[in-house]
Design goal:
By secondary structure, the protein is of the alpha/beta class. The protein is 39% helix and 26% strand.
Length: 234
């Protein structure tokens, strides 16, 4: 579904990604793990068209997309849930969900999508008329994911979805991600909660200093002694 081939990226003179190549297959959960500054968010933003590659190629459904603006990439079915949620805090839950369905392809499925997200997130249905900025942190993250689902994604990319959440909410969040994947949506997950992220991953890539240093199944990476020492404190 998604292919990155020899992708490089720079911030001025600083190289953020160095010849990164990876593939995401349909209906997989693929996790990208790495320390702060490893290039994980840069990778997600390149796929979304927010940043530009300095070299290399990004293909989605065999079409090259690395020169497309972000709205065209969303039109093709790639939706990013950004780090920090980035809701419209003065708007209601329902208004935020409406914004997720603004593209023509999603607008025609709005009624069905709304039923699906309210099925996944019953708390949002209860709070549909509440101002988004007044929700709890966990509810705001649920709303961010729900808004993304309203765009009817083929590939859903989540950037640090557990950031700042209580442990019990984190557990719930990863169960929801698995449910979303179970509905046939491919998931690309960037996450510092390494244990949870690798536990639900079909495959995983480890980024270090902008390079892919390791790849394998989620369980293979989780069982690697270097990963245990570096990220799990074992």
């Amino acid at each position: 579904m998604l292919t990155l081939h020899d992708v490089c990226s720079h911030y001025g003179d600083i190289q953020a990604l160095k010849h990164v190549s990876l593939k995401v297959h349909a209906k997989e959960v693929v996790t990208i793990v790495g320390s702060n500054g490893a290039g994980k968010s840069t990778l997600i933003n390149l796929i979304s068209g927010i940043l530009r590659c300095t070299s290399g190629e990004i293909l989605f459904m065999e079409e090259r997309i690395d020169s497309f603006p972000p709205h065209e990439i969303v039109d093709r079915g790639i939706v990013q849930i950004p780090e920090g949620r980035l809701l419209f805090p003065e708007m209601t839950v329902m208004e935020n969900l409406d914004m997720g369905a603004y593209i023509a392809r999603a607008s025609s499925h709005k009624k069905e999508s709304l039923q699906e997200v309210f099925g996944l997130f019953s708390k949002l249905k209860e709070r549909k008329d509440q101002i988004a900025g007044l929700l709890s942190g966990g509810e705001q993250q649920m709303l961010a994911i729900a808004r993304g689902l309203m765009a009817v994604p083929m590939l859903l990319m989540l950037d640090e979805p557990s950031l700042g959440l209580a442990p019990v909410v984190v557990d719930e969040m990863f169960k929801i991600i698995q449910k979303i994947n179970g509905r046939g949506i491919t998931v690309l997950l960037v996450e510092q909660n390494v244990f949870h992220a690798l536990s639900i991953a079909n495959r995983a890539f480890v980024l270090e200093n902008g390079q892919v240093m390791m790849e394998g199944t989620g369980q293979e990476i989780l069982g690697n002694e270097k990963i245990k020492a570096a990220y799990l404190g074992i």
